[in-house]
Amino acid sequence: MFAGRYEAHTVSVNAMLTPFRRLYFSGTASYQNSRTTTADNNSLSVAPYRGDLWSLLASATFVLDDASDVFAGYAFSQARYGQNNAADGLPLGLDYDRHGVQAGLTRRFSQSVTGRLQYGFLAYDEHSSAHLRDYTAHQVLAVVNLHW
Description:
Layout: E1 4-20, E2 23-38, E3 49-65, E4 68-80, E5 95-108, E6 113-126, E7 135-146
Antiparallel strand pairs: 1-2, 2-3, 3-4, 4-5, 5-6, 6-7
């Protein structure tokens, strides 16, 4: 009895670059295509769920001194899983773009105490929901790490 099948292929690449001692760049790019089929009893209204997912992560860190770093990062994700099945059923699926930017400062007060202050901005745009689930968000984080 066939219940379903999931197939996916993912390709990813990651690189880190240190142009000089105090500056670090890192990046990752990824692509995934996938397809999910389920038992459909020969109904055209149940379409295979297939699509693409793109992701990009990039970050930079600059070491100010032995105790302080500044950092920035960017994250992007794009999914295209919208199903054009309006003729035989419901046009379901998910299409979105998501962006995130962050920046902050890390301070090492001692070997066991580290603090971080960070700001972030996020934007999500979901085409497949007629933009009903779209959002923008701001984040402010203050973190203290204690190592025992």
